[in-house]
Amino acid sequence: MTLLPKPFVFVRHGETPLNRDRLIGGRTDVPLSARGEDQAQHASALLAQRRWSLVAVSPQQRARRTAELALPGAAMTIVPDLRERDWGDLECRPLSEQTPYEVTPPNGEAWLPFCTRVTDALNALLADYDTPLVIAHSGVFRVIRLLATGTPHGERVGNVAPLWILPGASPDDWKIIPLEKMNAF
């Protein structure tokens, strides 16, 4: 699996009650917390500075609401395959019980099909649009990190912390840089 070598920006949705309480929330469709709504509104000034060729959003309410608050009035395209991974029996359980990403959770979505689903969705967007904005989930970012660096492991991406995903000279030479540090793009 590889990503088409085009830049895009990724934003994880705002905080939810499950994030706040350190619980697994994949397919569970939860709203933003009050803090999550504030995070999304705060990102508005930064995200509104650019014209996005597309605002692609997961169908889950936490991502849709983040997009609505961060880019009021902007047209959004709901992309079903950007939804979070289904953690099966681990949904709403403590993060400490989460299996490694590569292990299929009981009655949940296997890692490889999840990666394929997300990669195919991102490549479809990148084939048709220059510099899309993608608003989705930490699991989606894990797939991006895998494709960009060779591993899904690392710090959890912050809520509403926009990141440039930038291709380099070779298929495995990607850069992930906070949006506010990229003035020239």
TrEMBL record:
Question: What's a Pfam family in this record?
Answer: His_Phos_1
Q: Which InterPro entries match?
A: His_Pase_superF_clade-1 (IPR013078), His_PPase_superfam (IPR029033), Phosphoglycerate_Mutase (IPR051695)
Protease is among the record's keywords = no
- Keywords, A to Z? Hydrolase
Q: Which SMART domains match?
A: PGAM
Q: Which domain of life is it from?
A: Bacteria
For this protein, the record's SUPFAM superfamilies field holds: Phosphoglycerate mutase-like (SSF53254)
* Annotated protein name in UniProt: Histidine phosphatase family protein
Q: Which organism is it from?
A: Siccibacter colletis
